[in-house]
Amino acid sequence: MKRVLFYCLSLFLNYCYSQCNSYSGCNPNTGLYSNNDPENIDYDNIITAFHTSVIKDAFNNYKIWGAYANANGVDPVLFPQYINATNYPGLTGDVMKVALGSSGAPQLIVLTSDGLFVSGYPGMVIPISIKSTNNFEKISVNGKSNGLPTGVMPADVKMMFATASSLTITTCSGIVYVLSELPLARGNGQTGNDREWATVMENPTTPLSGIIVARGQKNMGFALKKDGTLWTWGENVFSGKSTDGRNEIYDFATKMILPSTIHGIKMIQVAAQGNSNYHTYYLLDTNNTLYCLGYNTNGAFGFRTYPIVKTWTPSQYPDGKITDDIKWITSNEHDNFFTNLGIINKNGTVYTAGDNSGGMIGHDNSGINYFKIPNGISSNDVITSLEVGGHCTAAIKKGTSRYGYVGHRIQGSMGDGVPDIDSIGIYEDTFDFVTTPIINVCGVSCTEPIIENNSPLCFNDNANFTIRSTPNDKITYSLNNDAEQTVTIDNTGIYTINIPKADKKQTLKIIKFSNAVCDQNVSIISEDQIINNSNIRIEETGKNSINIIVVGGTPKYEYQLLDEDGNITFPWQTSSSFYNLSTHFYQIQVRTENTDCISNYDFIFLDLPNVITPNGDGKNDVLDLSFLKKAANSTLEIFDRYGRKVLSLNNNSSHQDYKNFFTGTYWYIFTNEIGAKKSGWIVVKNR
């Protein structure tokens, strides 16, 4: 038997591409629960640019809301929607990575297995020479149809980062490419043009290599090598060499001086101050210490210090204590306005600092702001993820299904589904966890597992259940009410249960799941329905006609008749009745609509003539009893007028023994393989 499989393909396909890290789906190495492996940290489970946000959920699906987020690249999206072919009709392939960048207006970049797609305000990230329209569509770059650098395929992309006027790609092999209208942002000696990808170089002949993280800002880049060294290039950049980077220009990637007390580098970030392009660097040590370098715009280092910091300096809390308990850092890296910073410490406590334009970091003042817990969040709240960007900040709070939003509420930027009342919008300086939508973010939200199955399946086929959940989740389940079992979800985010030759309905129930975010009792049930149409009954409804009855099967049914050699005599039909049958062996086939689950039933339709004349004249000389050859357990018994059995035929008989019968009337009883009987009479005229 064959079966038709029904899978949630929109979820499944997103797990097919690992992009050279340990996780083929959701990467939980993020936010409060991130570890010290810089190569596998996911910076981009939440992205905020100017009035627009994107999140990645536990099942590796992306959602977007806010300004210019519609497929036409002009209208806002007021409530989170999936980035898929339904909402973005031009999209093809499986979504692998998403980036947002802005400079007062956002542009969306989507990488799929087919290549790069772009929509939103032209010129904010992708040069206008490549994409001059707003609408969502695929781009080609320098004649390459997938939009990627020469020799790079979608699965080769480890990280894709967007900021004002630049898109940066880091490959699995550690090479960095930049697509930008700004020559200094390319890091290749200001060569090339804005219609082609530039390879970031250490010098005119040596590509920058071994990179595991590459971020940046307008007209500059900042990268971390696997060997723990830092590199920067572009305009107004700092190297940690005690020089004032406001006037420094590096045409090529330049190795930076690290803090003398550094243990290892976990994360990097960089922000900028508007059109001045003064840059602020951040480095998170693996011992949880935050270091700052560059321009301390509006207190964006988090503490009172000189406006210019020329060497890496530890940040401080308001009480003067060194920030040496930090788990996560986030700066306004996707937009070149409003230098600010957010941090999460080991306890899940959040502090923000810097420019509070539009209330975007939850402070009371719009000028200089040093570290403080933002409005609307208490010191007892556990914040699992934070993203500062554009003109807002997004937060995920443990125990709350709705995300937190602070900043400029306009053009759907909060995702609450409410249209603007005017062209100015509302400035929210207090985090709102009430009117915002419910979202699930990979690794930092309490996301319930889901179960997929291959129901319906055919009788005696293998049943399959697939549990999809965040990697490292502990799942307790019961199969068919048997003993509970607990498993840990691996880095694929998938756990599969197989039941061979299932002959009855299979039921899987998840009873509990737990992870760093939550520990919950649940009742998530999935049933694998078995199609078993084998209980078939035949009724003869009239001369030369039958009706097929299926008992206890799975309607709606389709029916087909084959002959003894397997040839189709009556093709598939929805009616259970067949007409104009002749004496024949038939194989009756029944299937449930839209499946290939076929049940077979062997049936002999008997319609013997009432008169035979075996006299050799070629007319009515013989009975066609060839059907008995296929009827291993059937018999045809013939009786004379006195009730004496004169002949018994089966599949081994010659079938012509009746030729020597005397003239007279005979009766027969046909018994089929299940014991059903049919009787009739025959007149033999043998002279």
UniProtKB/TrEMBL annotation:
Signal peptide positions (record): none
Pfam families registered for this protein in UniProt: CHU_C
InterPro entries reported for this sequence: RCC1/BLIP-II, Reg_chr_condens, T9SS_type_B
Stated name of the protein: Gliding motility-associated C-terminal domain-containing protein
Organism field: Epilithonimonas pallida
